[in-house]
């Protein structure tokens, strides 16, 4: 583990939510079905026909692309040849922000991309992946999708665009690389930060930061030249490969158990064109429903393995990890709450999804927020 320094502990304000904890997965039955899918029986049609899908992921390389290609290559054997996948990395068929149109037009039959990228098409996508201080673990997101109706809601929204949302794909948190140590919420004031769009920069702006949006290819030179003090990007494994340890000395994380306060579970999804999905046999549809859980687990494990190796390398490079304290999380949550409601009130679908998550966060299961924290906030729809 890399060197860790802890934010100075201050007295918690009354009503401070309990620290985040890793929770048990609540989709045991579905996971069991997914395991069975690995050894699925011969599903070929009586006519012996075979269908090939062209798929593109957002990963240009690294463990994400490797596990995607491996999974794609195994589908033909699992289906007895009825369905085959031809997997492509980022930009191999179309550009990253052309994926949506490509799957709608049939240039691709399916895509595996970061769900937040859909926010340009529907505001509701902001609430189909993690947002600042919302649901904070992968298990919580599993419960939302498979226990609280999130999957059905997502499919209804994506259907309006002529595509079928097959399911979420687990991915880890995004993290902050910094040229200066960050040990409390006050340390963000005046810092020049590269952040993704949407809700995330609004929360950090409320904390006093100066945010900018840069494409991934421009982050390293901006840090190297001192144009920015801090930068968000994916996770440890990928970021080490990009050389961020050469231009920053610190990594800023949340309290123990919460790597990222602003995007702790950067979910991807697997989305299929309606034409390709409707052409599948009922048995093949059931197979794919279960198989997406297999891929999600494979993907998550590969990313986490790469992250663990990267932590050791960051330590060897002299990078220091700094962590915020629990009271900083409470302070950031107070800043995030009005932004939650502002984004949810942009769209009826967004409000419907957010309400499910808000009620879950208010419940005894989580307790991330209290009635006092959301007092005065209202949903329009």
What is the fold's blueprint, element by element?
Layout: E1 3-6, H1 28-38, E2 51-57, H2 62-78, E3 83-88, H3 99-105, E4 110-114, H4 138-147, H5 150-159, E5 163-169, E6 175-178, E7 192-194, H6 199-206, E8 210-212, H7 219-224, E9 230-233, H8 236-241, E10 250-253, E11 268-273, H9 274-278, H10 282-316, E12 320-323, H11 326-344, H12 348-362
Parallel strand pairs: 1-12, 2-3, 2-4, 7-8, 7-9, 10-12
Antiparallel strand pairs: 4-11, 5-11, 6-9, 6-10
Helix pairs in contact: 1-10, 2-10, 6-11, 11-12
Can you count the helices?
A: 12
Integer count of domains = 2
CATH architecture of the largest domain: 3-Layer(aba) Sandwich
Listing every helix as H and every strand as E from the N terminus to the C terminus, the arrangement reads: EHEHEHEHHEEEHEHEHEEHHEHH
CATH topology of the largest domain: D-Maltodextrin-Binding Protein, domain 2
β-strand amount: 5-15%
Give a quick account of the main beta sheet: strands, pairing sense, barrel closure.
Answer: 7 strands, mixed
Question: Which percent bin holds the helix content?
Answer: 25-40%
Overall geometry comes to globular
Could you name the CATH homologous superfamily of the largest domain? Bacterial extracellular solute-binding protein, family 7
Task: Trace the largest sheet across and list its strands.
Answer: 1-12-10-6-9-7-8
């Amino acid at each position: 583990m890399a060197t860790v320094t802890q934010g100075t502990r201050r007295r918690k304000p009354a009503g401070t939510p309990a620290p985040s904890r890793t929770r048990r997965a609540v989709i045991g039955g579905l996971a069991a079905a997914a395991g069975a899918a690995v050894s699925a029986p011969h599903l070929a049609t009586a006519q012996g026909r075979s269908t090939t899908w062209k798929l593109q992921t957002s990963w240009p390389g690294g463990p994400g692309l490797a596990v995607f290609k491996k999974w794609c290559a195994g589908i033909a054997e699992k289906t007895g040849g009825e369905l085959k996948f031809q997997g492509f990395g980022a930009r191999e068929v179309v550009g990253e922000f052309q994926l949506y149109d490509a799957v709608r037009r049939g240039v691709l039959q399916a895509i595996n991309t970061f769900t937040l990228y859909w926010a340009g098409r529907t505001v509701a996508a902001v609430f189909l992946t993690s947002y600042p201080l919302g649901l904070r673990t992968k298990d919580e997101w599993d419960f939302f999708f498979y226990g609280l109706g999130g999957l059905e809601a997502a499919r209804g929204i994506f259907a309006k665009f002529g595509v079928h949302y097959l399911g979420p794909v687990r991915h880890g948190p995004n993290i902050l690389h910094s040229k200066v140590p960050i040990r409390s919420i006050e340390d963000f004031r005046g810092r020049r930060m590269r952040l993704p769009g949407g809700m995330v920069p609004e929360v950090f702006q409320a904390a006093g930061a100066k945010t900018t949006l840069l494409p991934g290819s421009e982050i390293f030179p901006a840090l190297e030249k001192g144009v920015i003090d801090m930068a968000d990007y994916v996770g440890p494994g990928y970021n080490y490969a990009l050389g961020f340890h050469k231009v920053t000395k610190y990594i800023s994380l949340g309290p123990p158990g919460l790597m990222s306060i602003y995007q702790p579970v950067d979910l991807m999804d697997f989305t299929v064109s309606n034409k390709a999905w409707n052409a599948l046999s009922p048995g093949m549809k059931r197979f794919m429903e279960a198989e997406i859980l297999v891929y999600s687990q494979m993907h998550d494990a590969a990313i986490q393995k790469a992250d663990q190796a990267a932590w050791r390398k960051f330590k060897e490079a002299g990078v220091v990890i700094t962590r915020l304290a629990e009271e900083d999380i409470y302070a950031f949550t107070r800043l995030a709450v009005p932004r939650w409601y502002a984004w949810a009130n942009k769209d009826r679908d967004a409000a419907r999804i957010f309400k499910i998550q808000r009620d879950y966060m208010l419940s005894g299961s989580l307790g991330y927020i209290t009635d006092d924290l959301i007092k005065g906030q209202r949903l329009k729809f």
